[in-house]
Specification:
Pfam family, one: Nitro_FeMo-Co
CATH superfamily: Dinitrogenase iron-molybdenum cofactor biosynthesis domain
Number of domains: 1
Largest sheet: 6 strands, mixed
Structural class: alpha/beta
CATH topology: Nucleotidyltransferase, domain 5
Organism: Methanosarcina barkeri MS
Protein name: Putative transcriptional regulator
CATH class: Alpha Beta
Order of helices and strands: EEEHEHEHE
InterPro entries: Di-Nase_FeMo-co_biosynth, DiNase_FeMo-co_biosyn_sf, MTH1175_dom
Number of helices: 3
Strand content: 15-25%
Radius of gyration: 13 Å
Length: 125
């Protein structure tokens, strides 16, 4: 299984989580079977490239996305590609990955998603 976390840098497990998943400069991907960590650049249209992040991550074999928060349309788009999304990510990639493994991150739903760009201070979208 491949788990992706939006990141601000290329520091692998010590990388800093980017709260805005679409505008993250990089995505850190952890293969839970091999423990291999790969950092890929965000080449989606949010960063001047083509395609949307869910499509791009699907093309890179991602099964799970761990992020600070996101809107419900994005949750639906990830789900359409078979990618499960969990919210509540923060700190480093290691912090987030360990929190997810411990069951501390919430499955993304309509109730805990952000409403588009009218973000409140309770969510990191």
């Amino acid at each position: 299984m491949k788990v992706s976390i939006p990141t601000k840098d290329e520091n692998g497990m010590e990388g800093v989580v980017e709260p805005h998943f679409g505008k993250a400069p990089t995505y850190t991907i952890i293969d839970t079977e091999t423990n291999q960590v790969t950092v890929i650049p965000n080449t989606s249209e949010h960063m001047g490239g083509t395609g949307l992040p869910p499509e791009y991550l699907h093309e890179n074999g991602v099964d799970i996305m761990l992020c600070g928060g996101l809107g419900f349309k994005a949750v639906n788009m990830f789900e359409s590609y078979g990618i499960k999304v969990f919210v509540g990510a923060g700190g480093t990639v290691r912090d987030t990955f360990e929190a997810w493994k411990a069951g501390k991150l919430q499955n993304a739903t309509a109730e805990n998603s952000c409403s588009e760009h009218g973000h409140d201070d309770h969510h990191q979208c």
